[in-house]
Amino acid sequence: YILAGDVFQVVLSQRLSAHYKGDPIDLYRALRTLNPSPYMYFLDFGTYCIVGASPEILVRSEDGVITVRPLAGTRPRGETEEEDQRLEVELLADEKERAEHIMLVDLGRNDIGRVSKLGTVRVNDIMQIERYSHVMHIVSNVTGELLEGKDAIDVLRATLPAGTVSGAPKIRAMEIIDELEPHERGIYSGAVGYIGWNGNLDTAIAIRTAVLIGDQVYVQAGAGLVADSVPNTEWQESMAKARAILRAVAIAELPE
To answer: Which terminus in the chain has less CB density within 10 A, N or C?
Structure first.
């Protein structure tokens, strides 16, 4: 599909599953300790639970300012500070990762531009590195001023799903994902957050997230594929993204 010109990038994911005998809240506690993230959540729906530690905002609309922060470009964390620094330099120098990131920043600009005042969309904090427990990412910040007559639902509709978990162009990428992935995504790559009575909105992308149903836990992770992607490298990236959740599952099952 990429070589045929259907898409520039598509984000394909894999679902992992395991038996889990512990309490869901113990998994949340383990994840909060192991992989503290900007968005931590524990949702109990009775028949299933969702536990997550997402590093990535989907979209925020606060006091008339819309914000998205695309995370695109990943390396595993190093064993030492020196290795971390080496991997950070390598990531920022990788032409493929830089091109992919800029493409998704541009997609984010286009998304919020649909609900922003003309001429207010700005990119700042361009291509910074954010480190988490098991991976590091390239991140940029995109903002715009909310257009009069638009509200939080309009903002959510303009940005969901994020390009960083679907691809570009988004609609065709989603069609390819629907065709190729063997499972429906469910909460994965969706949104967790709130809409306030004052019209503010704050949502995270549902990544680094586990779904617990009965004695099973399901974890999904993906990677963005482009024309020059190396399959094994992309597979390793998706496994690195899942590692914190899988480690938390193992810790949560340990006897006290």
So the answer is: C
86 is catalytic: no
Residue pLDDT, tens place only, 228-255: 888 898 899 899 889 889 999 999 987 6
Angle at 177 between CA 223 and CA 140, to 5 degrees: 40
Q: Is 47 labeled as catalytic in the residue annotation?
A: no
Structural domain range at position 136:
9-252
What CATH number does the domain containing 173 carry? 3.60.120.10
Domain total for the chain? 1
**Alpha-carbon distance 244 to 215, whole Å?**
20
Judge if pTM exceeds 0.70. yes
β-strands 57-62, 201-205 pairing: antiparallel
State the residue for tokens 């889990």: 20
Verify whether residue 208 is a known catalytic residue: yes
| 4 occurs within a structural domain | no
Residue type, 166: S
